[in-house]
Amino acid sequence: MLSFLEASDTSIDDVGAHLKKMVEIGIALSAEKNIDTLFDMIVEEARALAMADSGTLYILDRDRNVLSFKILQNNSLGLHLKRTENAEILLPDVDLYHGESPNYENASSFAALQGKILNIPDVYASTTFDFTGPMKYDSVTGYRSQSMLVIPMKNHENEVIGVLQLLNAQEVESGRVVPFGDRCVSLVEALASQAAVALTNRQLIQEIKKLFYSFIETIAGAIDEKSPNTGDHIKRVVKITMALAMAVNESNQGLFKEHFFDDEEMEELRLSAWMHDVGKITTPEYVMDKSTRLESKFDRIHLIETRFSLIAEIVEKQYLEKQVKLLQSRETSSDIFLELEKARKENLSSIHEDLAFIKTCHRAEFVNDKMIHRLNKIAEKQYIVSGKIQPFLDPWELENLSIQKGSLNETERHIIENHATMTLKMLSCLPFPKNLSRVTDFAASHHERLNGTGYPRKLKGDALPLQARIIAIADIFEALSARDRPYRKRMEISHIFEIMGKMKENGHIDPDLFDLFVRSDIGKKVKL
Ligand SMILES: [Fe+2]
Ligand SMILES: [Fe+2]
C-alpha cells in the first residue's frame, strides 16, 4: 500500500478515496459467502481499480498442477464467461509444468511459480513470454491485446493461490489503451492479496463443510448398512425431506404462502434429515432386524420345530408302550386297538396343527385376540422329557407370538424407540455453528406427534417446528414405501396415503403438510 502513497502523481484526496475503496472492497470480499460471486467481484473490482478493459482469474489446482480458469470479463467484447461445475471449460487451464520443467513461457504460469508481478506494456512486443494464444484469439475476434498486468494472488501464508490477469489499461478521458501505471499495480496487488485471503477462508470453510458432510453421510451409510431390511432409509428420507421443503417454498397459496426456507435453512434441514436416525448407531442389530415374532439373536422357530418333533416322538413312544402293554395282557379286542390307533393319530395331528398355527402366527402381519387365545391354549399343554414336565411354549415364546401388530415386543419396542433419545443426546453434544443451531431439534423430533403422543419428548403443537414435521412425514412415508420388508410386500401408494391419512386424522402428523405432500406428488417424484 505504501508504494502508491508515495507516488508523485497521487494527491491526498486520491489516496483517501483509494483507501476508502480498498477498505470497502476488503469488507465486501470477506462478507461474500458464495465462491463464484467472490470470483466475479475480484475481477470486477480489479478491473475498476486499474481501468482495465478485460480481466481473467485463474485459481491454482495443486492436485493437477494447473491454473484453473474461473472467470473472463471483457468489456469491449461484451464477454462475461465463467466456469461452473460440470460446465464446459471456456478457456483452457494453464499447465504449471511441461513434464518436470516449469512452464515459464506462459506469463500466468511464470507469475504463479515465481510469485512475481508482470507488467507488460505490449504483449505483441514481448520476447520473454509466449502470447500466441491471445494473438490467435485476437485474430478471430478482432480484439487487440496490448498492455497486460499479471498478479499472483498470495494468501496470509504468502502462498500463491491464483493469478489475476488484467488486459488493456485505458486512459480515463480518451479510452486509449496504455501501459498499467505503478500506482495501479500497487492497488491491484493490495486487492489481490485481500482477495486471496478471502478466497482461502471460503475454500477452508468449504473444505471443512465437505468433510463434515462426508463424515455424516458415512455414519448414515453405516447405520443403513446395519439393517439390510431398511436399506437406504436415511438417504431416501433426505430426498423426500428436501422435496417437501421445496414444495413448501413453491407453495403460493394457503398456509405455506408465507413460508420460505432460504439456502441456509435448507442446508440446516438437509443436515437434520441426514442425522435424524444417528441414534440407531446404539440400537442392537437383532432388534433393528427383527422381522418375525420369534426372531432374537437367532430364529426361535427352529427350536420350536425341533421341540414339536420331540413331542411327536414322545407321543408315538407312549402309544407304542400302550400297545405293548395290551399285547402283554393278551388283550384280544380289536376295538381297543383301533381306538388306541385313532387316539394316536388325533394326538399327532393336533401336534402338527399346533406347530403349523405357531408358524402362521410367527410371520403374520396381525395376530388377533382369537389367535392369541389359541396360542395360550397351546402354551398350557405340557410334555415330559427326562422326567421333567415342560410347556409346549415358554413364556418368552408366548409373549412374542402374541404380539398383535408387527414383530417387536414391549422391551424391543422400547429399545427401538430409544434411538430418538440417543439422536437427541448425541446431537446435543455437538457444537453446531449458529446457522445449524436447530439441527438437534429438527432431527430428534421426527417421532414426535402433533398431539403429544410421540417420543422422545412428547412435544406437541407449536413446540414442533415445521422442519421437524417435514422430516416426520418423510420418515413415515419412506418406512411405508420401502421395498424390502421380509414380512410385508411393498405397499401401493394409495394404501400408504390411506394409512397416513388416518395418522393425519388422529393428530399424528401435520395435516396441511400432508395435504401438500399428496398434492405435490412427491411420492412419485422422488423415485424411491
Ligand atoms: Fe427414527
Ligand atoms: Fe428414520
UniProtKB/TrEMBL annotation:
Q: Which InterPro entries match?
A: GAF (IPR003018), GAF-like_dom_sf (IPR029016), HD/PDEase_dom (IPR003607), HD_domain (IPR006674), HD_GYP_dom (IPR037522)
User: Is Hydrolase given among the entry's keywords?
Assistant: yes
Domain HD-GYP, first and last residues per copy: 208-297, 327-528
List keywords of the entry alphabetically: Hydrolase
Q: Does the keyword Heme apply?
A: no
Tell me its EC number(s), please: 3.1.4.17
Q: Which CDD domains match?
A: HDc
Q: What general EC class does the enzyme of this chain belong to?
A: hydrolase
What is the top-level taxon of the source organism? Bacteria
Query: What's this protein's name?
Result: 3',5'-cyclic-nucleotide phosphodiesterase
